[in-house]
UniProtKB/TrEMBL annotation, chains A, B, C, D, E, F, G, H:
Gene3D superfamilies: 3.40.50.1970
Species the sequence originates in: Flexilinea flocculi
SUPFAM superfamilies in the cross-refs: N5-CAIR mutase (phosphoribosylaminoimidazole carboxylase, PurE)
Protein name: NCAIR mutase (PurE)-related protein
InterPro entries xrefs: P2CMN_synthase_LarB, PurE_dom
SMART domains xrefs: AIRC
GO MF terms held by the record: hydrolase activity
Ranges where the PurE domain occurs: 118-250
Example GO BP: 'de novo' IMP biosynthetic process
Length: 250, 250, 250, 250, 250, 250, 250, 250
């Protein structure tokens, strides 16, 4: 309910078109929606990105996933559920036959049209980082963006990255996905002008401590203009990149 | 430009089909721009932000700081050195009489004109977080931005933040600076549409472990669109925010 | 054996009503029972809460669980075993046919009547936190309390909590159950006057480090009046809340 | 603004007593006032505890402490600032001549009358834990409670605690302050029926890791009814205990 | 090869009974065996404890375990293999039909006679600690000692320990096995005069961090005369206790 | 108060020799005295070791140290205070003129006669470990033992240890003091039959993490018969060794 | 090569002073050799070691492993894939029938001839460390070296290592593989003159924290000339040793 | 005593030249001298490197440093003491007037001639890493090597490193010194064929955790041929590099 609607409502009451009592019922939920301007924002977000809400699949039961998916689908053409394992998908696919499952990123989704706003590049250090990178990339795409993927350009073979330098430098925002020592974020951060979102992955063993080594490295990046999300959080990096890219696209 | 292209180009020069000078122009961008493009970028960065390089004062001797400051000053109107303690400033101020020292943010700088690009808001949870927030804010300002400051709106008194909700929501990018449990980043992240940069601070004691608690909390934010920089890294947050804000301003 | 009983016993000896030898036998066990006043307390506890002892199911064999359950059942109408997985329950249910199993909280119990002392509210940040919350809530109920449940009101959508603010504020004690960054504890702690018990959960991934992020955040809460129990310790939070609520109810 | 007020307002509009436009202005701020109900609560808290706000002295400048102290003093007879070191006090005492400084707890305060609500006991393991214990105890007293102190009863000499068992068991709530291995919290928790608030201290060396050992021990207490606050957080324990004790005293 | 053997060897050479060359071959390995007096000690150890070497089963293949067991058995009546899971035992038992398997301690062994040197007491906090305690106790027994077991006397029910105080205090050495907060080690350490060996166990969850909480607590014990072994290291505690007890028994 | 005493007391009551009321008063403290058997033990400990209590100087004020020292001195010829820094000693020495200060071990003490029970050896890896070793050695001596010191025999020069192998192997108990990687404990543990007490020290830098590296190494010793005390805890190791050595000496 | 040099070179070509082909050769190395010199190096590496690239099998799908293996095989006689589990091998062996699988080291490889450069010794503390040691040893062999293996010579039985001292001391480089407390690296480091590469393994339990204890111990080695690779990183140690050994062999 | 000597001794006994008894006395000390072959090695090491022993100055008293320095000086022209702070040097310089102090590396030394074996390059990421780099470089030089220094070529400005690529690639061994995220080690490791020794430094703040971030990053390097020493351990890196370089120089 927006400002104008409230003004209209009060005018209707003033003009006797609706009773004070009925007006009260209409108003009752207003303050929460209004104060919590973000409730309104939720709809704005929906209009722009098509995703008022995303289902975090991990830790939810099959029934919960299906139910929420169907409820969201009833309101939006675009629905997205992250962290849906192949096992879960196998069990629920018959109940969500219209949904597309991307096994690499483990995202289950429906979408009306492809993302069209260019400007986001997703870069990975190794092959093992691709699932997280795809979670980020598909998140960006489902939120309306077009994504350039540059994979397997880790710092142990620097020429691979330098080969793609032009492509990298023409981005509005870059998502760097790397496990092990996570050095790629600093190297990319030093080569570009745009914001860099670093995603540490749990790829590695021993003293990688499930991604801690990459996380700490990225937080201590000597390159400025680098910010970090949680280990393996492709979705979060995608959201952040999409928000930034859409600022640029305004 | 591939091997064959270069060979062809050289053959054309040898055969007089194109002049050495024109050939040079074609070649010029090949190795340099492609490989070390960032060297060129450094100048572009300088043109736009006025800061081709920032002096990280911590761990440098007085002489090193003064010398680098003077060298940069010779090339740029705007020079910035971060992490200059009051003690260091007292010792070097006579040698850099034209520089301005901001004791709260511990930044020593010169600037030609005030930042003018609006869109960045810096928010703090408590009074103790202000020095880090000021490092972020002044960094943004020296890089050409105008900064809105909203301080001391931590989640233990939520009404303080909600009072300023409109101001917060009208930002292109928000820097949230918080120590202790760092909850403010998630709360702000849930209230806005724009990218949020979270800066954990070392404010706290005991199980804050010098900012680790806030850092982990921010990395695990349940709100999407939040990315994190190092503990107490106001400068890094400022750079990231400035990069994002200038995307929006293009 | 209480003070008066000892005095009476000694008087009986003085008056020759019982011999010194018989008196000694009666006294023999006195010091332990008395010094260990808590042995007496155990019975008092039983009288009030109906739970002199709770079976911690994790790490016990099927036989141990069944045997202790039956032994306690012989003395009390109310028996409670926590951390009984569905698999364990499936194997032992035929031997404890009178017991009720709650699969969400993983508690196996018998009770005579429903809890009736109002004043405890259990709040969760997300859906994934519900099993821990239910362990807390059912513990409270089995100890005689009535519980108000307010689930899925995490800080990334603050309006959900504010919607229920009145309900939250009318509690004697609130249990806040949250994983990830655990910010809900601070936000609730800042909105209420009553004691808040924070339960970090292991919900999350990466830098949540199995609940460490939420634990540290809750320990560093900027809101006063918040105390913390172990990660996923719904039972402990329930006990603490029940003790507090019954103080209020005296 | 309550329900009835809104209904009245709408009726006034319906009856033409106030215009729709003026009614809108009145409504506009309603949600904020309502949502921020806790702003009202702040005053309620003040009325009951005499402490609407406490100054956390650590990390504040002398001027900040003095200024906030004077501002609070203008509104309340009782003012309290924690973590005021002897050095800080020496510098500011002339500007706050009416304030009392307790060097053991490092609290600077004014109070009108002594706390009178009995029920809180503060227990310490060793002599080194007393400053934290006194921070807790004086916080309780300034919030209106009477405090029983039982110090230096650590588990390496268990008879010292058992000597005071009766005193301990007659409490509404017990604060256990212990460093090193923090075992006292579990021992006390097993001997009493009431809620126990455990405060780990940084007393120790080596593998105590500045209180981490005691903190982890207390979080893992085998006794139920124990909740934990941050390392050295006597103030937080005092607040929690006071909230609990005043529930009991209602 | 002992001193006398060398003297004899040299005499044989002097008397021409063996050639200098053959004597050299015999001597060649002498220095190592001799310098490494422990090689001799190994035999002494065998004579006293019957265990010159113990097989650490974890991480060994079935074949390795069987082969080493048989090799040791050929030389000694007593053989002992620790950390043999029930699954491993099921697979190898036909090849070691003479060996006894204790499923609680997961020790596979043969022994000629029961341990007879009294003086060791093994104490546990809870039921879950018993497997580790049994590893310690059976190790002691196989090394010739008689063991007193006092289980399930954790500090949350202090009367259980005090009931057994006399038994505890009459030991030469006490092994305290406890998980969770590990407080029992300090409490026992404060009640006895003899050396206490503390064994933290991985019993617990959440902030027990797989036994770290108990380990740190035990290392920080406020009671003197307590030393600690690795988490779940019942075998190590048993060895240490046996060495101490046999000193007492000399 | 023993069994016979109680029986006698009851008989006296039966015979009218003392009144029931007076008998009750005598009995009242019985359980505590009995349960607290260790209170009696304290005196036994005093008789044998001369040290019923040791003052832990760290964290105590000058006045507290002096006062407790004088109080203990009034009852015992032998008094010992550990962790007394040179600065503290300089301030208090005039008030304790009869006490001896050992600046290496930082122990302040009085003793009647030298320790005479042989069997304890203290070994260090490096020169930097000597202060902790001396704390252990002097503790042992003050408790009646004679100590053999073998310093600076770290594993990087193994021949130094092997030179002293005979001396090492003739001990009842060995204290190994080592920082950095703490490997000496395992090497010694593999060379001897007797119990080994390992003391990690904070000697080192970087990834020694203030002794954590040595602590972990010692806890994971591949040699059996090794138990560990807290980092830098020479006193604790000395107590443990003394308890063990006196068992051997019985 | 600077701008002027390039201009001159092109002018020379234009003037026919040097041919286009020779000019290309001069230019060829300018960008690539200067910048990506390593691309050329890659071929040199291939020529010498036969391994321009190694497949890290962990985290790759069966198809990825097979495809890369075949692609590399087409170019080189020697191909190597590490971290291939027995399960993976069983599934892919029919598609790579020419490849040899070593189940201990989990390496899948083809090779033309045996390694022939002596100088590398691989030492392990225990039996459990052998798989990591074999990964190192086979890596060295596939890279052209001959390897001496000395296994199961941990410090708890020092005579085993001393027995093999001569063999150890005749190496160019030694790889020490050890879990638990990792002390063997320091002991070997103190006995030899050549570089020592320490490989911590995850062998151990409890406070070994999956190899952390050994890692920290090795990093803090009191012996100079020791450097460390990641936990369980036999491959990395093998590469490093091979690089060093081939320096010696030049 | 070498093999031949023993053979001769036995032959003398066989030939009756010396008695079996006298022969035994000669033999008795043999094993120690032999086993400790490394004692001989110490002299070999001295002959080649001029440094049989290095004084680790940290934690030693002034007197200890001077005394050991003089003792070593009596035997060798080259003496080296590391970690000598400027304060220590100021106090002892009059007693060691012949020694040279390098304030950057904090090394105090004497040397006869400059190092002459080329092949070692020391690279740093930043200016703050130079003191550690100089400790490494001077150690190498004192051990006979010539060192190439390439400083301030961190990955945030990759062109600086690439500018020096030829110089870097012509090394036998490279020491990479870097703090913060330590990425330079991986980048250099990917660009060269020779062994790389990575030295993490404590340069950084916040989540660098005093060098832990760089340490973990370097241990997880995606480049093969990289091994790591302790944080800030320039000396250790120098020793390792010298050992490797001298292999190459044989």
């Amino acid at each position: 309910m927006e400002e104008n609607q409230i003004k209209k409502l009060l005018a209707s009451i003033a003009q006797g078109e609706i009773s004070a009592e009925d007006g009260y019922k209409k108003l009752r939920n207003y303050p929460f929606e209004s104060v919590e301007g973000f409730a309104v924002l939720d709809h704005q977000r929906e209009m722009r990105t098509g995703f008022p809400e995303v289902i975090f699949g991990q830790g939810k039961t099959d029934d919960q996933i299906v139910e929420i998916f169907l409820r969201l689908k009833a309101k939006n053409p675009n629905v997205m559920a992250s962290r849906i394992s192949a096992e879960v998908y196998a069990r629920i696919k018959d109940r969500l036959p219209f949904a597309v499952y991307d096994s690499m990123s483990r995202i289950l989704y429906t979408k009306e049209k492809d993302g069209s706003i260019p400007g986001i590049t997703v870069v990975t250090a190794g092959t093992g980082d691709i699932p997280v990178a795809e979670e980020a990339a598909l998140t960006c795409e489902l939120m309306g963006n077009k994504v350039q993927r540059i994979y397997d350009v880790g710092v142990s073979g620097l020429h691979r990255l330098i080969h793609r330098l032009d492509d990298v430098q023409q981005s509005n925002v870059i998502i760097v996905v790397a496990g092990m020592e996570g050095a790629l974020a600093s190297v990319v951060g030093g080569l570009v002008q745009c914001p860099v979102i670093a995603v540490p992955t749990s790829i590695g063993y021993g003293a990688s401590f499930h991604g801690l080594a990459a996380l700490l490295a990225m937080l201590n990046s000597c390159a400025s203009g680098v910010a970090v999300v949680n280990i393996d959080n492709g979705f979060g990096a995608g959201c952040m990149a999409s928000r930034i890219n859409q600022l640029a696209g305004r």
